Amino acid sequence: xxxxxxxxAIVMVNIVRIxxxxxxxxxxxxxxxxxxxxxxxxxVAGGTMGLAVGLIQDxxxxxxxxxxxxxxxxxxxxxxxxxxxxAIYGNLLNLFxxxxxxxxxxxxxxxxxxxxFYETGITFANIAKLEFWAIILLQSLIGIILYSYIKPxxxxxxxxxxx
Length: 163
Prior knowledge:
Blueprint: H1 2-20, H2 29-41, H3 43-61, H4 67-84, H5 92-118, H6 124-127, H7 130-154
Helix pairs in contact: 1-2, 1-3, 2-3, 2-4, 2-7, 3-4, 4-5, 5-7
């Protein structure tokens, strides 16, 4: 039940992001929450959450089913794998780098799938501009801030996971 609550929270964040998308550019908060969940719960639980959230987002956007799901899955599994070896616990710089590289994996996977199936004509040189790196950097900084607020919820005896 506790995992379902977190899934619903991520879905609500995505609904708000998609609803406000035409008016305001918002960061991928759903991805950041999935990455934080993967750090706390491990690679399998994080990958499963990433797959579920990605499928829900694919259904909401409606272009093609599976693009967000695969992208979220790979990013969440990568950061969950790094957390398995305690490489990012207690060190915000390592967590920042893990979120940074997971964001890059997400963006490149989504771009590759879109290019493969829809032939959008967007080259790698077009997406690897300063704007791309600025967005990734901003999302990583927001991820560090979210992590510090969400971490107490996941502790044993915390609000979300009482046992």
